[in-house]
Amino acid sequence: MNRSTFRRTAALVSLVVTLPLGSRQLVSADPADSDPSHSLRLTNHTEIKGRIEHRDKRRVRVRTKDGFAITVPLERVHTIARADGSDRRERKPLLPEKKRRSYKTIALSTEHTLTIRKNPTTQVHMRVVEWPGQTFLLWFPEVIDNVWAQWDADVAKQDFTISDEGELVWSRQFERKASVVATMTARDDSVSLEIRVKAAPDHDIKLASPANCLHFSAAPEFACSDFSRIYVRVQKQWRSFLDLRTAPGAPKSQSPASVIYREGFLESKRLDIWKGHVENRTMPDRVDHPLILCRSRSGNRGVATASEDYQGLFYNQSQPYLLCIHSAQAGVAIPRGKEAVFREIIWFVDGGIQDVVAAYDRDLKAKRSD
Fold this sequence. Notes:
Layout: E1 15-18, E2 38-42, E3 47-55, E4 59-63, E5 68-73, E6 77-82, E7 89-90, E8 106-113, E9 121-128, E10 136-144, E11 148-149, E12 161-162, E13 168-174, E14 178-186, E15 190-199, E16 205-208, E17 210-215, E18 230-234, E19 237-240, H1 241-246, E20 257-261, E21 292-295, E22 301-307, E23 310-316, E24 324-329, E25 332-334, E26 339-350, H2 353-368
Parallel strand pairs: 1-8
Antiparallel strand pairs: 1-5, 2-3, 2-6, 3-4, 4-5, 6-7, 8-9, 9-10, 10-11, 10-17, 12-13, 13-14, 14-15, 15-26, 16-25, 17-24, 18-19, 18-21, 20-23, 21-22, 22-26, 23-24
């Protein structure tokens, strides 16, 4: 995928973020908005309730009673009113029925807690407000090879902050090794991930590759324990990992994870982040598309992710807490003083496989036309 694919500056969707300690607090621009009970109805009929704590010409920020901060572009606000219905101000018309799914309200929070590692780790929790009851957990990142690892307790805590534009940001300086800046941005029906790794002036990084782990254990509509709803594309056909794992030639003794390389990657002699240690996980087939996709049980929704420069795809159900998909970033060497940029997108789409692929193709086309 072309690097420009991930540089689109689309308007931010509604963003919900729990601000960790140290995050930037926004001050209300209007004393009249200090009332703790307001209701925002968006043009797709989503309703948000809370205290308005900031407003400018482009966005309004609401703090809900459970501590979430919601940043909404004003172009998506139908009405603003007090919770009792008074002081109602209409801004934009409601979208017609067939267009109400044209954007998502993506909610983000962060939590530092003990899960399956020996030490606590920090996760981003993602919710699509229009899909109630589903929480998508993300280690962002899970690891950056030869730079940072979340199971190193001394550095595992990530202090994310939120920018005025609604971006979730984590940055860290690793003395005499590298600096890292990880940024998450919510868009129309996706979240873009960007990780910048800059080698220290006197240090060469021989192999760097971030692993972003997206798991479905807290999203019951998507949690899949039999590989049947995890799809990748092989020879221009979308196939489930269950199909690939049971096909002739698949490893007879398989781990609870399945790995599949990108076409031509091994032949390219590029640095291999898996380093040949995944034989009992590796399918003999090769993928020809960077998307790995999870379908909901009902089949009418899909969550997928794709890296800008991917080595391969894998699904891991070795732990009930995980049930995770990866579009694995290819590793690169970073000479001293130089910077590498790794980009990935996660899509949340109503519809089947082809609708998810259409969202990917739409973003790819939009990027290339920038």
